[in-house]
Design brief:
- One of its GO terms (cellular component) is chromosome.
- There is one protein chain.
- A five-stranded mixed β-sheet has the order 6-12-13-21-18, with no helix packed on it.
- Helix 1 crosses helix 2, helix 3 runs antiparallel to helix 4 and helix 11 crosses helix 12.
- It is α/β, with parallel strands linked by helices.
- The radius of gyration is 30 Å and the shape is globular.
- It binds S-adenosylmethionine.
- The site of S-adenosylmethionine (SAM) has 17 residues, from strand 13 and strand 18.
Length: about 750
């Protein structure tokens, strides 16, 4: 059978990148099944997903081959002349590495060749990175943006969440894990990581008006300015690195450490190091696939554009601020900034705003890191006054510290990874519904004690029966009799790193099937006590749960032991997206997940229940109560009854929405560090196979007729057939109509 047109096109696009058919075929096959033959998704962004997948496959293969090489080298290593051998093997390794790298990556790294128009028409063999930085005009390659599946005219559902498959149980039970509501988009209340970072950033551009004579003797990397915001000092550091410059050298981009952060004592990376690192990152983070792309040239282009725009302004009669290139296109940020004041003094604040809006310069491509200052250097005619105040012509524009709100900052910086690089995988966000950005919070991959919670991970308190010191290698190997596993009733995980089928089924039925539930009652419930009401109410009961014990540092096994899953962190491709049906942000999986797969844990501040109640009067909370052992023989002291609050400090799980009864995730207590009954990790696992693009949900355990803290009521839109909110509303209606009839 002749290959269909889709297949042909895909092959052609990959061939254009120098990828052979035999490399394309297996990956395409996999992708087709993963995307359920959705060619639209595969073809999006010039077959970006396919190219990505091929690179990933090549990288995996390369790593494997490299590991094998290393292993072989280790085995055959001989003692004499070690230094020379090591040097030689380093060089060989580098060469081998180069050989193993995907061809496109190699090209990009060395600046050999490239295409002139992205994936469709590569033109290998054009500019080298080492060439003079004079490439302008139309031959710059397009930058492919991160993959955000968008709905389109033909397929309005593309990118929309796939409604989870039903997996119903009769009569929805009470669950003792509660989740409070989080105010959507209430970013001003929460502390933002970005705000924090912003506190250190000095972002500015200077358009100095110094004539040629006055610049004599000033090194080209030094910016002339006299702002009270001390950008001069920042750039005048001898450790400044010149990143790029315009063809004529009039415009430069310099990078230096801010002196206040002690940056001057750091190692100053070389241009080559920086370029390599950035190009790797561009490939990884932004999926810039065009072989012609080079960070160096991109920076040079910024300089050239800057010069072009400035020259235009110079030539125009009024030097309109519209022509000033801003490092921000966010109006609100500048409304509050010195920039606005500067223009206002000139009677041009609205023009400043226009200028901001018209700026196409994307700051995400500039190094806006918290310890580093970026400056642009431009020399033209005119003058600044001595105090650095902005004169009548082009002026210094500085966004001062702490003036930009978190939302502004995210808009400006285009931060697309909600984890801020704190997980081993990036988790992008996308909003195809409105212009909202994710709420502000500080991302932390692990829970951290807020203040009083008694959580100790001392080596002293890991008793022998809580670790497997006599194990070695992988505890899941058949010959091992691992204590961690035997402390409970056997291993929860399979060798593939997913939950054992039986274990999962039991967890699900224990949580959802009233006949299987075991509810424990406290003599004095910490929760009821914390309410500080005159009469302490009786305990409402806490669901007993199956728990997992993973191996940890006291154990003799290897880090890759199969009984270490949750502690390895998130590894699947997830995305935060804005739900189209009024549930705010949610999380979906970008790839198919098997049943029983670990997705993420619920990380947040570890609070005592007392702290939770104190906090409740001041802030919104989003707690998960760690009550799996409450009501068992071991009582809970005041500082031992704990919960996790992910509202202000948390991880991706704070975005996971609720679904009544048949959610596709289940939370399972996992002991990692020890078997402390008061603190454990709460890990989410899939209850069934998950499709790519399907939203992930868990049952918060909220009772919609229970208006008692911590369950702040929300109108449930989970859409489940067993929605407790819908049932509750209809039962209330029935009651009301019965009452009416009686009356
Ligand atoms: C932990 S947050 C989940 C993330 C949240 N959607 C957001 O935008 O940040 C919980 C809040 O999300 C909303 N939410 C979660 N599940 C919902 C559902 N099934 N129906 C309506 N709102 C829901 C409620 O406002 C709830 O208080």
């Amino acid at each position: 059978m002749a290959p269909n047109a889709h297949v042909k096109k895909a092959f052609r696009a990959m061939n254009a990148l120098g990828i052979e058919d035999k490399q394309v075929k297996p990956v395409l096959k996999e992708l087709l099944s993963l995307y359920d033959k959705n060619w639209e998704l595969i073809a999006e962004d010039n077959y970006r997903a396919l190219a990505d997948a091929i690179f990933d496959a090549q990288e995996t293969q390369a790593t494997q081959e490299r590991n094998e090489l290393e292993k072989k080298a280790e085995c055959s290593g001989s003692e004499p002349d070690r230094g020379k051998k090591a040097r030689e093997s380093d060089e060989e390794d580098e060469d081998a590495l180069d050989e193993l790298e995907p061809p496109l990556k190699r090209l990009r790294r060395r600046g050999e060749g490239g295409s002139s128009s992205g994936l469709n028409s590569p033109d290998l063999g054009s500019h080298s990175l080492d060439e003079p930085t004079t490439i302008h005009g139309g031959d710059t390659a397009p930058i492919l943006l991160p993959f955000h599946p968008l709905s389109n005219e033909n397929d309005p559902n593309a990118g929309a969440p796939i409604v989870p498959k039903d997996e119903r149980f009769a009569d929805m039970p009470f669950s003792s894990t509660h989740q409070d509501s989080v105010e959507i988009g209430n970013s001003s209340a929460a502390i933002s990581e970005m705000e924090n970072t912003n506190g250190h950033v000095e972002v500015g551009e200077t358009v100095n008006t110094v004539d040629g004579a006055s610049t004599n003797g000033v090194p080209p990397t030094i910016t002339e300015r006299s702002s009270e915001h001390k950008l001069v000092a920042t750039v005048a550091e001898s450790s400044a690195l010149e990143l790029a410059s315009s063809h004529t050298g009039e415009v430069k981009i310099n990078l230096s450490f801010a002196p206040a952060t002690g940056g001057s004592s750091r190692h100053l990376p070389s241009m080559e190091e920086l370029r390599r690192a950035m190009e790797e990152r561009c490939l990884r983070s932004y999926k810039i696939l065009d072989p012609n792309f080079s960070v160096g040239r991109f920076m040079d282009d910024i300089c050239s554009c800057y010069l072009e725009l400035a020259t235009k302004a110079e030539n125009s009669a009024n030097q309109s601020p519209e022509n000033l290139p801003f490092l921000t296109k966010n109006v609100d940020a500048l409304k509050k900034s010195v920039a606005t004041m500067a223009f206002a003094s000139n009677g041009s604040s609205d023009l400043a705003t226009k200028a901001i809006n018209s700026s196409n310069l994307s700051p995400e491509n500039l190094p806006f890191v918290n310890e580093t200052a970026v400056t642009m250097d431009f020399t033209s005619e005119g003058s600044n006054d001595e105090n650095g105040e902005v004169g009548d012509t082009m002026g210094l524009v500085v966004v001062p510290e702490c003036q930009i709100s978190a939302d502004d900052w995210r808009l400006i910086s285009g931060v697309s990874d909600v984890t801020l690089g704190r997980e081993t995988v990036e988790i992008p966000w996308v909003n195809e519904v409105n212009s909202k950005v994710p709420p502000a919070f500080r991302y932390m991959p692990q829970s951290v004690v807020y203040r009083d919670a008694e959580v100790k991970f001392t080596l002293m308190n890991i008793s022998d029966d809580q670790c497997c010191s006599s194990c070695c290698g992988d505890c899941l190997a058949p010959s091992m009799s691992c204590r961690c596993a035997t402390a409970l009733s056997g291993f929860a995980y399979t060798v593939d790193g997913i939950l054992q089928k039986d274990f999962l089924e039991e967890c699900v039925s224990e949580a959802r099937d009233p006949k299987k539930q075991v509810v424990q009652f406290c003599k004095e419930c910490p929760f009821e006590k914390a309410k500080t009401e005159e009469v302490v109410e009786p305990c409402k009961g806490h669901l007993k749960r199956k728990v997992i014990k993973e191996c940890w540092i006291g154990c003799g096994c290897v880090g890759r032991c199969g009984n270490r899953v949750v502690q390895q962190g998130i590894h699947n491709k997830l995305q935060v997206f804005y739900t189209p049906d009024g549930r705010g942000w949610g999380v979906r999986s970008l790839e198919k997940l098997p049943k029983g797969a670990f997705v993420c844990e619920f990380a947040g501040e570890i609070l005592t229940i007392t702290e939770l109640f104190q906090r409740r009067s001041e802030k919104q909370t989003s707690p998960v109560i760690l009550d799996a052992y409450w009501g068992s023989e071991q009582g809970s002291g005041v500082n031992e009854a704990l919960c996790l609050d992910g509202t202000q400090y948390g991880n991706i799980s704070r975005f996971i929405n609720h679904r009544c009864g048949d959610a596709n995730l289940i939370e399972i207590p996992v002991h990692v560090e020890n078997m402390d009954l008061h603190y454990y990790h709460v890990a989410f696992f899939t209850t069934r196979e998950i499709d790519a693009m399907e939203e992930l949900t868990w049952d918060y355990g909220v009772e919609f007729n229970d208006h008692v803290f911590p369950t702040l009521p929300f109108h449930c839109r989970c859409g489940s057939d067993s929605c407790r909110n819908v049932m509750q509303i209809s039962s209330e209606k029935t009651k009301k109509s019965k009452k009416k009839k009686k009356a």
